[in-house]
Structure formats: structure tokens, C-alpha cells
Amino acid sequence: MSELTPITVARGDGIGPEIMDATLRVLQAAGARIAPEFIEIGQQQYLAGHSSGIAPEAWDSLRRTKVFLKAPITTPQGGGFKSLNVTIRKTLGLYANVRPCVSYAPFVRTLHPQMNLVIVRENEEDLYAGIEHRQTDEVYQCLKLITRPGCEKIVRYAFEYARRHGRKKVTCMTKDNIMKMTDGLFHRVFDEIAPQYPEIETEHLIIDIGAARLATRPERFDVIVTPNLYGDILSDIAAELTGSVGLAPSANIGDHVAMFEAIHGSAPDIAGKGIANPSGLLLAAVMMLVHIGQPAVAETVHNAWLRTIEDGVHTAELHGSLSIGRPFGSMDFADAVIERLGQRPEQLAAVRYTQADARGAAPTAAIQVKVQRRAPAVKTLVGVDVFVHAADVNPDALAGQLCALATPSLALQMITNRGVKVWPAGFPETFCTDHWRCRFVAPQGQAVTHADIVGLLQALTAGGVDVIKTENLCTFDGERGYALGQGQ
Ligand code: ATP
Hints:
Layout lengths: L4 E6 L5 H14 L4 E6 L3 H5 L8 H10 L1 E4 L13 H9 L3 E7 L13 E7 L9 E3 L5 E3 L5 H17 L4 E6 L7 H12 L7 E6 H10 L6 E4 L1 H14 L7 E5 L4 E5 L16 H13 L3 H16 L19 H10 L39 E11 L5 H11 L5 E7 L2 E4 L11 E7 L8 H13 L3 E11 L2 E2 L8
Parallel strand pairs: 1-2, 1-3, 3-12, 5-10, 8-9, 8-10
Antiparallel strand pairs: 4-5, 4-11, 6-7, 11-12, 13-16, 13-17, 14-15, 14-16, 17-18
Bound molecules: adenosine-5'-triphosphate (ATP).
Protein name: Isocitrate dehydrogenase [NADP]
Function: Catalyzes the oxidative decarboxylation of isocitrate to 2-oxoglutarate and carbon dioxide with the concomitant reduction of NADP(+).
Family: Belongs to the isocitrate and isopropylmalate dehydrogenases family.
């Protein structure tokens, strides 16, 4: 008998304690070699003054065990409370959100009985950095940050996940026809890494058509890898399509720590009644068992659970014509799964975590993704975008003012408003706000220095121009590091 693996467990709020107790009962009966350490998170912690819903000492357990099985929590109403999930993800570097979305037809009603896909969502970057500013009276901005190491980690994770779970295809979804630099990087990294997994089919879809196809033909997808915001939306669509949000698990994976949870919330409307479905959390625990190297137990529990569902043992929210008897409560459902440990489903597809897949790679340990940092590029400063707040001004007048104030080392090249070029040769029909992006470059293409930019800013501000911010224009190893504007 191998040693017990310590895991951190939070019973959470609402239905959390009921579904956690049911889940732990099944794990124990199945022989999971785990030693749970319980921590307090959620409502009580928020109300005790911990703004992220977690007490400082709870972090010690998470750092020690590096594995977190988490029940849903309730975030109190009102301001000042931060999302516990976002805090945990960012603090512990949980870069991959992995969400399997599977149909269990005919036992769970769905329009898409063949659906069996996994969404691998980048979890740390994109528009979720929380870097937002109001820049003018009319304009607000949110920074979208996409990094090469972030893309490499998530894309490689998706391929490793596919390989280890015997999945055949990885689809990348981005909007790089518009966001050529940020989403373009994600797509490029996908294309760079894909050839290292020749046994896996790959495709790229623009996110809008990709989402549409997911909604209408989810069975054509296997693994989907995508940046944070698209992944957030896609994974809710996909979970909904399976017919029951109550059955879906998710994992948040980092280099050091991983967190496993159901995708649903704390369901206060049914809390304390003992009727909640523990399946989402139980299937999250199955993912956890695979992660900590106990695939045999994971397989036993998952197959017993599938058999339970197809035997018609259903909690209230799934109860229907294929259900047996009265709706099962959370604990009775857990006991029904325990009775079936060692059995496999007869109609639903059984899972297989222990046997080697077609390529001989058994999924017995957590996926570790290593990113090679590149040598820095030769970076050359070639100009600056100066963002200006100016109300009730026409582009030609603004250009005249800027040209008159500009220093000899930097000349005004163009002005855009919300990305549309309005000078030179703008259209009078273009609607303009009070937010102008004014591009300055060296008149003869000569090198630009930071001092040149500071000099320009001094001249502009001294002339009464309200500069909001600047973005340096650089080349990296001779390659342009900025968009040309207007979606180019
Ligand atoms: P949150 O903002 O925390 O996600 P919510 O109320 O929007 O909360 P849920 O808590 O997921 O979302 O609940 C949505 C609905 O689904 C509720 O009617 C709830 O009773 C039901 N529900 C959620 N989880 C379960 C479950 N495990 N078993 C049965 N019903 C559930």
C-alpha cells in the first residue's frame, strides 16, 4: 500500500458540505489513498474580514499539499468582496482551466447525445489582468495581455492532455483576423507546437464561427484550446449543451498547485435539504485522482458513477422517465455509486485511465509543462503613439496643433479615433470621440531615443495638449511590434 497523498479540502457554503461529504464517502470506499486537510473558505471568512474569502493560514495548507478539492462557496452581496476563485488562480498560478463537457444521453436529456469534448482555457492572461482605466470623459480601456510563455504553456498543456487521454484532435480558437498581434501570437504558438504531436489532428477556427459550430455540432470537437475570455464563454455554452450543469467538473492546473471543483455554484435555494447532486464535485475528484497519480481509483469511481446514472439512480434535478423510484438524496446517491464500485457502464462509454492509450502513454502523473524562455530580441525604438484627450476638435485642427508643437526628431504620421484613421485624409462621416491616438515617427526613419519621446511630450504638454498615455513603437529583430492601425 503506497502512502496517503495529503489534499486540502474546503466544504464551502450552501450545498457545498453536503456534496463534499458525499464525494469523500465515495472516495474513501473506493480506496483513494488521500489524507484530507480541511480549510475554511467562503462566506464566514468574508464576513470575518478576509476580503478574498480565505483565511491567511489556509494558504499554508494549499502550499503544503498542492492539491485542492474545493466545494462551491457563496460570495456575500455588496462591495469589497473579491472573487476567491480569481484570487486563488492568480496567486497560485493556475494557468490551465480544464473542463470536460460530456453528454449522458438518453439518461440526461440533451440535443447533442454524441458530445464529448474538453475545453482547455487559458486562465491567467487576456482581458482578465484587471488593468482598466478611464482615460477621457467618453473612453474607458481594458488591457488585453497575451504572453508567449503563457501561450506556450496552455497550448502545450492542451496537446499533452490530448495525448495522455487518448484524444484525437485539438482545435485552437482565436480572433486573430482582427487581433493580429495578441490572438495572432496564440495562433502562431499553436502552429509552432502542433507538429510536435503528429498523432493529433489539429485545426484553427476563428472564435465566432467556432462558437457557432460548438453550439450546433459539438460532437465534431475533441479538445479545444483558447484564450481566457473565449474559454470562459465557450465552456459555459458547452456545459449547458450537455443538458446538465450539475454534472460538470473542472480543474485549474498550475505548475505547483491544482484545484478541482464542480462548475456549479453553492445553490442556496436547495442547500441543507440533502437533495443536491454531488456528481460535478465527484467527477472533479476523479480528475484529481488522475492528477495525483491514482488513475486506477479514478477509473473505478468514474465507471461506477456512469453505471449509477444509467441504472436510473438520479437526484431530483435529473429525475425523469428513465429514473428509478423516487429521486435519490445526495448521500443515497453516493451509496448507490459505492454499491457499483467495480462495475462498468453498459450503454454509456466506459472511461479508461489506467491502460496505455494508442501511443503507449499512460496518464499516471500530473502533466508538467516546461517553457523555454527565448533570448531577448534586438529591440529598436522607431516612434511613439501619443494618446490625447481632446473634446470638440476636428482631426485637421488637432493635427495642425500637434504638428506645430512637435519636436524635429518626431513627426506626426497619422491620427486615429477608436482605431479609424481620421488624419491625413479622413472621412467627415467618421464618428469621433474625445480620445485620439496620434502616431509620431522619425521623419527620415532614423533611430528614436527615449529622450526624443520625453522631449516631444514636454513640448506637447507645454502647448496645452492633454496627453493620456503613450505606447512606444518598436521593432523586435527588425519585425514590426505594433499594429498599423485600422485592424491591420
Ligand atoms: P453562483 O453565482 O454561485 O454560480 P447561481 O445561483 O447562479 O450561483 P448555482 O448555484 O449553480 O448558480 O445554481 C443554479 C441552479 O442550479 C439553482 O437552481 C440550483 O438549485 C441548481 N443547482 C446547482 N448545482 C446543483 C446541484 N449540484 N444539484 C442540483 N441542483 C443544482
